[in-house]
């Protein structure tokens, strides 16, 4: 599935048009890089899409990590922990469940799957408030679990894994393993998981993005800045930049800009490195329906 | 097919049952008034202050850990854990959800004056009278004490800083166009026209359509008293004569196009201040220091004066902002929490530090008459004794202004009616009626009897 | 089937053991699903039947919150606004995504890998960061867009003004998600057997013809998927307007989108019960629109 198609006749016109679009998609990121090299004054006085005279990026990065006793580093770490644990857990649950729904006939299989699928349409922001109330009763508010537990449910991930498992794991293979006397869970771990890997990585990555980008849930769940993920922290700094912070906040804007840049680097790298997996994994979800 | 669905229903039922239990726990806060509290003895206080205790304190004031350190030095048994849960509204949102949830709320919290009734109506603040708060009354500027006192004399919070409103203006721009600092609003309007005609890129001032705080301060000065709460009865009159006078005045200037109505505390607005788009800023006593750090390029060009008056020779002012330390009723350590709130805002070293380190505008009479504070001559204002100007204004703030018990709602409604009319330069007087209508509807929905 | 000789009862026993294994596989997901989705949802549903007042406390309200919502102009206005947003933004975004996917798949591009990844990269940018960036780019006096207009000597449009705000928001969302949709479509295209094209090419069909009559029909399920996600995304719009609100407080009001309204009701108006009802109704609207979209698509096919 990953073999490139034979190149047809190349079209300069089409390539040029696509490059123009590429500029549109990369321009804001270019702006972010340029802006990260500027001081507050230069952010407003110099032309936005080109570098100013001074190159303040190293200083800005140092400031980002030094501000408020290094809280930014803490935010990044929190985000990584929340995202990795949630994504790993969600992908595992989806793989188990998807495989179960795809390869086993049991009563209620379709009905249960239908309920899960239908839940994709539940507005997630609508759930956040009741979830908050439920969590506060069992003492989970203002803990990492308040972010991780709700992120473990990924109905679309389950759907994707079910579709993927149907195709990627041949029934004959499972049957052969059974005849060899392997238990169902051994079959899953040793035979099916290997075949499910692209789907698994896809769900992993997309949950990773969803948790990494999560804003609303941590916004209401967490009170303690040392538990914030980087999104809420940055939004807080952005608000502070405009409040001015009673005289001490005059230089928050470069922190917001540079902090934003630093926050997207890890995800972009993850996507670039794992592209082979997620591209084929996503394909499965779109082919079948 | 039957079994799993049944099972699912059972789970759903369990969820609902859990909900019932939760709802049962959540409700039932008493309104905090009624019973007159008995005083706590000095022996109890001494004992509490020597018992190892941890207090959680929510505040957004930068570097407030310095004042906390003073407290902990005096009371080593008590440890204060500081949390910055956001400034203003975001913090109140968090506070409210934590209070509703019944866990995660702090012991002591930073609350602006105007939000006190919003949290006392739900019975969430502790009356500080039993802990000797009434004795502090004389230390504070009269109107600030009025703001923290409840209908039955409860003391809901200890004032920390204040924001009596004045006018900061650009001396250089005034000189260039031959404008004298206006003493009345009529002169102000005339100056607005003169200035904008002379230079279409400059406005005499900016009245932000998203800044209810400034509007309320101006209402306060204009003599309006739009809210009065008495138990479950509330009077709402945001479209009375005084309000209409104000709305007609500002709406008229906005419609004429001689003042700016940009949203404030935005990048665009900061640029406006830096680049001389606005020749004055109608602001509060915390404004001068704020401006000097956010419009550095304009150092030396600004001066301070009282607000223009509605009647020549009058001397009225309103307040915008400033805050207090309040104790949350659910605290497990009421004595330590109350004494902490008291210490922060009355200890001479602590209050002086607020004024000189964080540049909060003081709420205590002693500091406002302390030459070390009033005689400062910041270069940003060309050496003018700005603190002296605002200390004088503080004395002229009326003491009887009241806030509604659901302030975030009225602010929100203001933004979308009156504020929007300013920004869009449409009929501001008509917008007052919409505002009145929306507040009234909300109050009725919340079970108030609206008069 | 190699087990022709197996006795019937034994096979049944095996089947039931397998069913038990099936339950075990799906159980972990379902447990978390119930705890994190069903319980809060049920709780929200329960809450929506009550009224909590500052004066008078909590009382049972029946369906009052729902009837109130159905006549609430602010809510209906918000639904209409996201409906308009959906009608304008989604066709543009999916049209672009489809065009990009077809172009990448045609083999007629130089640098196709760079293009594919470059267009996809915005998806990895958190919406908080995307909104902060675009908010700055839109800035009326100092933003780069205004600066460019200024250089050319034209009046810059106020991208944060009331007239253009919805378009500005649509642009942010398009920027964020076109690449994501493109990848779904592209991956689906790669799965179409090449023989189909080759046969058509032999018959003399041009690239556009092949795209139109072979590739697009083959993409139907993938397009449907992207469309459903877009319905959900549009009607749930929250992060972007919430973050741009700070820049244009008089343009984006608290009922600008239904989700923003629900948030404001819960946290500003302290009306959690009504907020729950609004969220519920919003969920129903989303289900209804998704269903209609699918029906319409299926009808056109038959």
Automatic annotation (TrEMBL), chain A:
Alphabetical UniProt keywords: Cell membrane, Membrane, Transmembrane, Transmembrane helix, Transport
All copies of domain ABC transmembrane type-1, residue ranges: 76-274
Entry-linked InterPro entries: MetI-like (IPR000515), MetI-like_sf (IPR035906)
Compartments, record wording: Cell membrane
Membrane topology: Multi-pass membrane protein
Residues annotated as transmembrane: 12-34, 80-99, 111-133, 145-165, 195-217, 252-274
Domain of life: Bacteria
Pfam family, one: BPD_transp_1
Gene3D superfamilies (alphabetical): MetI-like
Protein family: Belongs to the binding-protein-dependent transport system permease family.
Name of the protein in its database record: ABC transporter permease
Organism: Phytohabitans aurantiacus
The organism's taxonomic lineage, starting at the top: Bacteria, Bacillati, Actinomycetota, Actinomycetes, Micromonosporales
From TrEMBL, chain B:
TM region positions: none
Stored SUPFAM superfamilies: Periplasmic binding protein-like II
Residues making up the signal peptide according to the UniProt record: 1-23
Keyword Methyltransferase: no
Xref: InterPro entries: Bact_solute-bd_prot1, SBP
Record keyword Signal present: yes
Pfam family of the protein (one): SBP_bac_1
Keywords: Signal
Domain of life where this protein originates: Bacteria
UniProt cross-references to Gene3D superfamilies, sorted A to Z: Periplasmic binding protein-like II (3.40.190.10)
Protein name in UniProt: Sugar ABC transporter substrate-binding protein
Organism: Phytohabitans aurantiacus
TrEMBL record, chain C:
Regions annotated as coiled coil: none
Localization terms from the record: Cell membrane
InterPro entries (alphabetical): MetI-like, MetI-like_sf, UgpAE/MalFG_permease
Family the entry assigns: Belongs to the binding-protein-dependent transport system permease family.
Keyword vocabulary terms for this entry: Cell membrane, Membrane, Transmembrane, Transmembrane helix, Transport
Membrane topology listed for this record: Multi-pass membrane protein
CDD domains: TM_PBP2 (cd06261)
Transmembrane residue ranges: 20-43, 82-102, 114-137, 164-189, 218-238, 274-297
Predominant cellular place of this UniProt entry's protein: membrane
Domain of life, per lineage: Bacteria
Name of the protein in its database record: ABC transporter permease
UniProt xrefs under SUPFAM superfamilies: MetI-like
Domain ABC transmembrane type-1: 77-293
